[in-house]
Automatic annotation (TrEMBL):
<protein>
    <submittedName>
        <fullName>F-box/LRR-repeat protein At3g49150 family</fullName>
    </submittedName>
</protein>
<dbReference type="InterPro" id="IPR036047">
    <property type="entry name" value="F-box-like_dom_sf"/>
</dbReference>
<dbReference type="Pfam" id="PF00646">
    <property type="entry name" value="F-box"/>
</dbReference>
<dbReference type="InterPro" id="IPR001810">
    <property type="entry name" value="F-box_dom"/>
</dbReference>
<feature type="domain" description="F-box">
    <location>
        <begin position="1"/>
        <end position="51"/>
    </location>
</feature>
């Protein structure tokens, strides 16, 4: 007797969520019941693999998954940006993704159009994004304001913040439940001069090698603050002014 197949769907789905996605999908060969279960996976993780293999598997997810189920967790570690990756991220955003992690090692050219969509998601509670552009100093340019009302944990690596009319970038003021923020190798866009981090719910802030001439903090609830800041010197000296506002 197949005792595992006698378990409830919720238990089997939890077991499958602990597997690598490809292994979980392979269970569909066991029986019709397993075939239907693998279409309802809520946690997907894609790690480094050949582009064709990644695209084939991502296409299977997009075309076969039961679209009536939300997608809770999506983690993508890949060599380069692809059109298929963009479709996968858009699919996740349309299916109430809660936890999203994207790490692209070498993006050739401009980043796909899914980037702005990431920063207007109402379902995301945690987001980690790192997209390196191959042989280019440019970073991913973010909107002026990040509209992430449910975000609690945010990790941004190699992104550029844009400023409003007063040459000050204030991207996090609309993140009303943000608890943890980590910025690595970020910069200001064009004529922006000041990075302002204003958030009343922030508990933990880590800034590593932020390129900004002035950083203004208004974070009254913070309990953990870590700074490792790099200043790139041009023709004239620059200094960082760190202003803490209560």
């Amino acid at each position: 007797m197949d005792m595992i197949s006698e378990l409830p769907d919720t238990v089997l789905l939890h077991m499958m969520d602990l597997m690598e996605p490809k292994q979980a999908v392979q269970t569909c060969l066991l029986s019709k019941r397993w075939k239907n279960l693998c279409k309802r996976l809520t946690n997907l993780k894609f790690t480094f693999s050949p582009v064709k293999s990644f695209e084939n598997f991502a296409s299977w997810i997009l075309n076969t998954r039961d679209h009536s189920y939300s997608l809770h967790n999506l983690s993508i570690h890949f060599w380069t940006d692809t059109r298929c990756l963009g479709k996968l991220v858009k699919y996740a955003l349309l299916h109430n993704i809660q936890h999203l992690k994207i790490r692209i090692l070498s993006c050739f050219g401009s980043t796909s159009d899914y980037i702005p969509l990431l920063f207007s998601s109402h379902s995301l509670t945690s987001l980690s994004i790192s997209i390196n552009r191959f042989m280019q100093p440019l970073r991913v340019v973010l909107p002026n304001t990040l509209h992430l009302p449910s975000i609690k944990s945010l990790h941004l690596h190699r992104v550029t913040f844009t400023a409003s009319d007063n040459h000050s970038a204030e991207p996090f003021s609309m993140c009303h439940v943000l608890h943890n923020l980590k910025l690595q190798y970020c910069a200001l866009h064009d004529d922006a001069q000041v990075l302002c981090i204003s958030n009343s719910t922030l508990f933990s802030l880590t800034i590593i090698r932020q390129q900004a001439s002035q950083i203004v903090l208004s974070i009254p609830s913070v309990s953990s603050l870590t700074f490792r800041v790099l200043i790139i010197m041009n023709s004239s000296p620059h200094a960082i002014f760190l202003l803490l506002e209560k």
